[in-house]
Amino acid sequence: MSEVAAVSENGIQLNEQQKRRQRARSIAIALILAAVAVLFYVITVIKLGPGAAVERPL
């Protein structure tokens, strides 16, 4: 935890290890978000049935 980002006129500059960690966190969050979306879709299909969206009256 002793890593400190450098502050310059262009803003905060992250070192390579901090960039890798930030990218890994971003990928993890994206994967979790995708998993939640798939989970909601699967639950909806299970509750309504596989052809419910096509056969449902408007």
Architecture overview:
The chain is mainly alpha-helical and 58 residues long. It has one domain (6-52). Helix content is 64%, strand content 10%. A hairpin with a 2-residue loop joins β1 (6-8) and β2 (11-13). It is rod-shaped, with a radius of gyration of 21 Å. The model has no long low-confidence stretch (mean pLDDT 85).
Helix/strand layout:
Blueprint (H helix, E strand, L loop, with lengths): L5 E3 L2 E3 L2 H33 L3 H4 L3
Antiparallel strand pairs: 1-2
Keywords, separated by commas or semicolons:
single chain, 58 residues, mainly alpha, two-stranded antiparallel sheet, rod-shaped
Q: What share of residues is helical?
A: 55-70%
Number of strands: 2
- Note poorly predicted spans: none
Mean pLDDT: 85
What distance lies between the first and last C-alpha atoms, to the nearest angstrom? 57 Å
Short overview:
The chain is mostly helical and 58 residues long. It has helices spanning 16-48, 52-55; strands at 6-8, 11-13. A two-stranded antiparallel sheet has the order 1-2.
